[in-house]
Structures are given as C-alpha cells and as structure tokens.
Design goal:
Nuclear Transport Factor 2, Chain: A, six-stranded mixed beta sheet
Length: 121
C-alpha cells in the first residue's frame, strides 16, 4: 500500500507544478525537510523549500514535470526512492535524477530529504 501512496504524492507534485501551486508543492514536504538542489546551498524547512520551488518555476520556466520511480524501498515509517524526473522547459525537456527519503508524518507520506542533479551535457 505504501508504494501506491508515495506514487499518489508524486502525482500531486506533478499536478502542482502544472498549476504553479508552490503552496501545494511545499505541502508534500515534512515541516523539517531538507532539500539539496544542484549548485546551491542546503535548504531547510517547508517555507524555504516553497521559496526554492517558486524561484525554480520562475527562473527555469518549468511547465510540467513527470516523475518516474526507478527503485523504492520501504522501512517502516521511512522509505527511499531513486528516480528520474523529466521537466518541460522552454528550451526543451531536461532529465534529472533524484534520491528522496520519505517519512510518514501525520499518517501521510511526505518528502523528508530531497536531492537531485542532472547529467553533464
């Protein structure tokens, strides 16, 4: 059941990107989440992550994202996911790879740690 729940949260994130709803994007993170964006500083906390995604949508012009899970391992109230995301950008699609640590918080799976990067061009 947990794999289906995590997949559902990924679909919420995809839909939130399409709608440019940074509040909803940030809501899938734990309150004390940490994001490690490529080439940038560590971003801590849901509010700061919301600002990170707002900047990314504006600066990169992200139109949509499609998340694909390559590996998902569950361990009680934690899980880790390895995958790739295809971003629709004005200059064409970009593919990033990611590792997410999920944590069950308030009976929901939420992103607790998030790191991603792209292959060198």
């Amino acid at each position: 059941m947990s794999q289906a729940e995590i997949t559902a949260v990924n679909r919420i994130f995809e839909d939130s990107v399409r709608r440019r709803d940074v509040e909803r994007m940030a809501s899938i993170y734990t309150a004390d989440a940490i994001a490690l964006p490529p080439g940038g500083p560590i971003v801590q906390g849901r509010e700061n992550i919301k600002r990170l995604w707002g900047s990314a949508l504006e600066e990169m012009g992200v139109k949509s994202v499609k998340i694909e899970t390559v590996d998902l391992q569950l361990a009680g109230d934690l899980a880790y996911e390895v995958g790739r995301a295809t971003l629709a950008l004005p200059a064409g699609p970009a593919i990033v790879k990611f590792v997410v640590v999920w944590k069950k918080e308030d009976a929901q799976w939420r992103v607790h740690r998030d790191i991603w990067n792209a292959d060198a061009s």
